[in-house]
What we know:
Layout: H1 2-15, E1 27-28, E2 37-39, H2 41-49, H3 53-60, E3 70-76, E4 80-85, H4 87-99, E5 113-117, H5 132-147, E6 151-155, H6 163-175, H7 178-183, H8 185-199, H9 202-207, H10 209-231, H11 234-258, H12 272-285, E7 289-291, E8 294-299, E9 302-307, H13 315-330, E10 334-340, H14 344-356, E11 362-368, E12 371-372, H15 388-406, H16 412-432, E13 440-441, H17 444-447, H18 455-471, H19 484-494, H20 496-505, H21 509-529, H22 539-559
Parallel strand pairs: 5-6, 5-10, 10-11, 12-13
Antiparallel strand pairs: 1-2, 2-4, 3-4, 7-8, 8-9
Bound molecules: arginine (ARG).
Arginine is lined by residues 117, 120, 122, 157, 159, 319, 337, 339.
Amino acid sequence: MIPSLLRPYCAEAAALxxxxxxxxxxxxxxxxxxxDYQWNFAFRMAKTRRENxxxxxxxxxxxxxxxxxIRAVSVAGPGFINLTLDEAWLAAQLATITASPSTGIEDExxxxxxxxxxxxxxxxxxxxxxxxxxxxxxDVIVRLHRASGWxxxxxxxxxxxxxxxxxxxxxxxxxxxxxxxxxxxxxxLERLYVKFGDETDGERAKTDPEFAARAATLxxxxxxxxxxxxxxxxxxxxxxxxxxxxxxxEYEGVYARMGVRFDEVLGESAYAALxxxIVEAMLASxxxxxxxxxxxxxxxxxxxxxxxxxxxxxYTATDLACVRYRVDRWNPARMVYVTDVRQAQHxxxxxxxxxxxxxxxxxxxxxxGMLKLPEGAMSxxxxxxxxxxxxxxxxxxxxxxxxxxxxxxxxEAERAAVADAIGVGSxxxxxxxxxxxxxxxxxxxxxxxxxGNSAPYLLYSRARARSILRKAEIVPGTLRLEHPxxxxxxxxxxxxxxxxxxxxxxxxxxxxxxxxxxxxxxFNRFYYELPVLQxxxxxxxxxALVSAADVVMARGLSHLGLVPLERM
Length: 568
Ligand code: ARG
């Protein structure tokens, strides 16, 4: 937003050197003492033209002087142009963005479609904490693109096809407990899946020939059931459909609590019929080749299997079929896949193959690091898998204790909703606050802390602004930025669109999280130092600033998928 407003000035100045030059925009200065924004064009240009950068900067700087919004311009260091913005102009821009539905976010994605492939659990298994980061990060990538004018398709690419279902059918026939299935379908399916694994355990088979024979039979049966399912066998289809429907019903409950929705839930099964023709076509064109009974694609020194020896489709083949489908249906400009970073190699191979198919869309894999649970942090019921619902329940219970302690004035009825927003929001925010690639260590104390870069702190800061606005007996007036803390808060708010743009471009929710945190800090510093309602002549202007900060904080929280609270 500010860089865009200053762009014409930059273009005008750049033209003094070279009217055809590619103009770079301004960037924030690292140090406020050097002004608000810095323009590095002269430095870059002089280098390529083998001229003196400092002299070039001095030649270009005067072009900015006196332009609307510019209070001061200076040349620094080896040839940087530093710009200090005018307070009245900043105040006017802030009023403009806070009155606009987009909060000044530019519609960089207008007319373009992005597909965000995220969450994507494998059905018949419980959602556990491992699915959480994909869901949280993917959801924010969706929100950021929407805010930036993209048409967004959020797609939950669930694992609902292939060999696990053959195993489940056999396990169902052998060991099912229908009472347990009626009470907790996914729990029972998970038990059956684990049971199948135990009964076919390779280690045990090595030393126990009788067991090995039984295991081999079970394995053969499972493969036969998978093949039957894939051929459309009615009974297996019906079982598969029921397993899937029960799983989805449970997941939907979790997604609703997390505040996440999808535009499509096209699982792997949606592409099953597309895979074989694609593999055949690649064989015919020579892109794929037969290798020891399987079909593979060689790409550089990477080999991707697209059809197994037994004819089954692979993960890569399904992703290739899926990309075809997406291109045909939506013609996306961008496709983003959010998974565990350990799948990085798969995506690198798959993107490279897709490029050779002339898929023009930009394709990005957002690989996230692990969520590390401290020993004994939570009770683990089924093995060491922590169920997502249990985690959310515990977070809400802890938040409720916090609310009961700190916000005893809140009416009983409101406390549950507030605890829900804080609890679920804290779990979410912990996944977002660090860059996706970083491992996160789970830490209840830090997550629920009222200070520091935590969800409660952000929610509390915004609720504080609401409380000031509620108590005010005057109306907000014209904003005047007279005190450095007022100026700092206004400028931070104005940089909100830049933060959204950078977070979107880099698939990095943490960039926005960091900015919202800084905004809250600037707001609290301002509020701590300067009286608002008791501010005398300055009261109406300061109230306008509180109101602007309120809008920016609330929008920032929403784009992160947190629920802004009126009070807490
Ligand atoms: N179901 C997969 C898993 O649990 C993730 C799918 C990611 N999306 C994709 N198009 N490959 O690992």
